[in-house]
Structures are given as structure tokens and as C-alpha cells.
Amino acid sequence: MAPQREWLEQDFYKDLGVASDASAEEIKKAYRKLARELHPDANPGDSAAEERFKRVSEAHSVLSDPEKRKEYDETRAMFAGGRFRGGGNGFPGGFPGGGGTTYSTSGGADFNIGDLFGNGGGATADAGGFGDLFEGLFNRGQRTSTAARPKRGNDLETETTLSFADAAQGTTVPLRVTSPSPCTTCHGSGAKPGTSPRVCPNCNGSGFVSRNQGAFGFSEPCQDCQGTGSRIDDPCTDCDGSGVKVRARTINVRIPAGVEDGQRIRLAGQGEAGRRGAPSGDLYVVVHVTPDKVFTRSGNDLKVQLPVSISELVLGATVSVPTLDGSVGVKIPANTTDGRTLRVRGRGVPKRSGGAGDLLVTVKVAVPKTLDAAAAEAMRQYAEAEKASGFDPRAGWGR
């Protein structure tokens, strides 16, 4: 994604109150703290808190994404102070006309002017050049600038907690989200009902105006329409012409079967609304799974420990074992050793590709705490018979 011009004016680290070298976990922790404090539900009618909530959400959407954060850091570093050192030819900031010369930024880093514009130096925008960054600012080859794209809404993140069974089998949960959403009065257009935005006459709807200086053609955001390409003569009174209003809404989210603890689910277009009808961001739902007292998971396999008696292991038995949807009879072969794992095919966690994992049943001997006289006598007789048969449980064990 091409760097955004707004990044040059914003300090996302300051908005979140973290250092520029903060870890992903520190950024996440700071965002969650501020989001709770500034959430519109906790500050009804407080426009300042609402505006800060928006800034914090935007800062988190950039800094929590490794690629966006890298782009943001590089953009801010290159344009630190808003100027470059170099010489002359009437170019703002001191760019000479030579495309193959190396210059220094105000921070002291060297770069090649050809690389900066994505030509002449062998570097491309994909390889770390800044061609994308300049595409909206300079008209390379006197090219007419393309129409301004509306700013997409920010991504949002929320959380939900599921039981082990719901996470394994899938479920639908209602989520209450308070965020900037399309204004219901103007349906996101920003114009008063019955009216429509009109094409900006100053930039003919492009969002940019051009001017020439020396050998270069500049494109800069149109001041009349703030770079949107359209003018609203009669703004919607409910959203002040932005097309966006903070409101609470309930979303029914389908959680797919097999989701694991900590997994993020992306809901496209359910995030913060874009201004004046621009596309909405995405909503990410972080799933937390409550541990189960019977089951654990290993991928798509369910694991369970089955308490059994000594006689069931020695003589064999068929035992009822719980699953996610009812129970299943598991046959324990005679002379099964304690700790052996038996596999029941297809009774585990459903797979997205179809089918299901397996149920892994580990047998574990349960020893009675007390025995009545008859049971104790029977055990003594069994012990004597066992010894007479030549069985030694410690044969070959130890030194």
C-alpha cells in the first residue's frame, strides 16, 4: 500500500503514548488501555474524547500492521522536518535537476534522486524506492494526476470469548461495536437529504491542482475541496458533512468451526466507515477460548484422559467416552498398558476442508482409595495368582 500523505502530519507513536521502538505487545497494550478510557460509551457527549478515540484507532491500525508500520517509519524518517539538504535549481527543498546524483536528507541518510523517483537508479518502489510516495505529489513526465481516491476507513479490533465446544464446532455470536459508521441520515454522502455533492470546479473532480516550477510539475491537494474532488454546498446536519457518525451497532458474527485461542477473524468492510462514502475498513475479532475440563486440542485432534480400573485394562472392556456431539463406545483391548492412547477416527474437531480430526483417548488407571473386605480379599487372591504365574512388574527394570 502506498504511503499516505497524512502520515507526514501525524505522530502515531505520540497518539498512543509509546516510544518509536515499542514492541508490538506494548503497542497493543497501550491501544487497549486508551480505547477503554476514550470509548464513546464511556464518554457520552464528549467530542474531544471521541476525536482522540478516532486518532488512537488510526494509530493502532497502522502501527499494529508490520508492513504499514515499516512504511510509516520510512516515510517519517525521509521527510523528518519536511525538507532535504541539497542544492538549488529553484526546486523546493533543494532538489537539483540531475537525476543520478546522491544527496542527503536532513537526518543525514544518503539517497539517489533517481531511486527516489523510481527511475534511473535501478531501484523500484517495490524494492524500497519512494516512487509510490511521490506519485500523488509530482507529475512525472508532465502526466495528468489521477482522480483522488477517498480515504478508506480505519480497521478496528474487538474481542469475544467462546466456550471450548463453541470454538471447536463453530457458532454465531452478536458483537456490540461502537465506531464511526455511515451516517444514517445522508447514507454516507455527507450532503443534506435531497441534495448531492457536486464536482469541484477548481480541480474538475481530480482532487489535485497542478503547477509547474522549473523542470518539475507539482500536484497538490485542492484546497477548495480538501482533496476529495467534490464540494458539498448543503452539508448533512447530523454528521456535519463528513458522512460518518459514531454510533453503536450489533453485528452477528459467524465463528467458523475449529477456531483456536488467540486467532483473529477478519470481517471485511465492518470496520470504521470511510468519509463521504469511501470504503469502510475491516473489523478484526480476536477469539479467546475458555479451557474445557474434559477436552484439550492438538490441531484438529481432540484429546481426553479416560479413567479406567485395573480390571478393565487386564480383562478388556468397552467404555463410553464423551465427544463434542454425544458419546462413543471405545473398546479397550485386554492387557492394555496404563497410559496407552487409543484413536477414534473422525470424532475430533471439524476441518475447514471437510471431515474432522480424531479423538485421542489416553487410558489412565484409577486406584480406589478404600476397599471393602470382599474386594481386598479378592485382590490378595489375585496378587497370589499373579505371582504364581511368574509375572514380575519390575522384570528388567533398574540395575
UniProtKB/TrEMBL annotation:
GO terms for biological process: DNA replication; protein refolding; response to heat. Pfam families: DnaJ, DnaJ_C, DnaJ_CXXCXGXG. SUPFAM superfamilies: Chaperone J-domain, DnaJ/Hsp40 cysteine-rich domain, HSP40/DnaJ peptide-binding domain. Residues 49-58 have a biased composition (Basic and acidic residues). It comes from Gordonia insulae. It is found in: Cytoplasm. Its main location: cytoplasm. The J domain is necessary and sufficient to stimulate DnaK ATPase activity. Zinc center 1 plays an important role in the autonomous, DnaK-independent chaperone activity of DnaJ. Zinc center 2 is essential for interaction with DnaK and for DnaJ activity. Its cofactor is Zn(2+). Homodimer. A zinc finger (CR-type) spans 170-248. The lineage of its organism: Bacteria, Bacillati, Actinomycetota, Actinomycetes, Mycobacteriales. InterPro entries: DnaJ, DnaJ_C, DnaJ_domain, DnaJ_domain_CS, HSP40/DnaJ_pept-bd, HSP_DnaJ_Cys-rich_dom, HSP_DnaJ_Cys-rich_dom_sf, J_dom_sf. This is Chaperone protein DnaJ.
